[in-house]
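User: Show me sequence and structure for the first protein, then do the same for the second.

Assistant: Starting with the first protein.
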Amino acid sequence: AWNLVPYVAVWYDQSGGGRNATQPTLGLQPKYNHGGGFVDFKPSTRMVLPYIFTTGNGPYTYVTQHRNINNPQGAIFEVGHRNTNQAVIFQRYNSQYDSCWVSSDLFFGSYAPNSILSETYSGTQRSTYVNSQLISAPAYSTRNGQGTSGILGGSGEVNNIEIMNGELYYLGTSSIVLSDTDRKLLEGVGKP
């Protein structure tokens, strides 16, 4: 009997922009679960993620769906410089979610398996969504994002305390604020 395990060495950027997530080290490669349609980042696997947001105070949109995040502080991704407060980290934070710019946490929603999470930033406002429902939209006037690579399936936190230890269906990003219609299409709730 065959016991084939598909490890993920490259998660290809579908936009054609070449911002592929990679992991050349076999022991750190997540597994692909074909039957469930997700990438399994358990127990402590992760991928190198190129910088996926605009630098400076530029706008962005991200949309992602996770299956489970078993670590109560598990990060889905981190990009940017944490040590200079220029990182973007998206994670579960105990019973809710945290969109963290390191210097400015935005806690929102209630953690639940299989949630679809989105955030847009216009340059003046951060809007967070859970399952396509607007949760919060506070004003933020500055973000100092820096264009460096990051981690998919965790963060750069010392001692791996923010490793995801969970499963991810997808991550979509844009360097613009998508319209509600386009964002909902990425979330899978809109009709083409």
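Switching to the second protein now.
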Amino acid sequence: EVRAVTLYRVAADGSLRLVGRAGVPGDLISSWQSIPPSRDIPYVRSMAEDRAFFWEDRAARTTQFPSVASTTSAFEATATIPIHDGDSAVGIVGLMWTTHESFSAERKSTLVALVQQIAHLLLRNAAQTDPELQWLHTVLSLHLDPWLLLEAIPNSDAVVRDFVVQDASAQVVHSEEWIGRRLLELWPSAAAD
């Protein structure tokens, strides 16, 4: 049984930004709020190679990534699974178990498929609760005109191909339905521009 989950979104600069977590103690996650793309750690490697990784125990993980050996964690087995939107990886999910786990090819493909199936919902919900946006929302709520706060979504070549609505003013009709949705989903005709 999975004991903890982390959810990262790829930022425009290629770094990974923590947008959601469950079951991970605050003291463990505090130094992992933002991960630069230059770090050779499981999340970054999984994004760089655009593939899921599974480690049955801590020893297997630290053998492949010695830089995480000093991290104190109650978790044994872990997995990092990229989240895709079309052909681009837009984020990554980390799964953690407190026990040694075996990952057959069938179990791996099932976990990857499950993460992909719910990934858009995870990212949409995370966008609504992103603590980094609270101060900005307060400032923008004082503005009388309608506005959207958009986050760029780069493709694998770092070219921005779409945006995700992170926040919207109350003056935008049905703004609560816009949060977490793609700009081209809301305005498909903008793809031609």
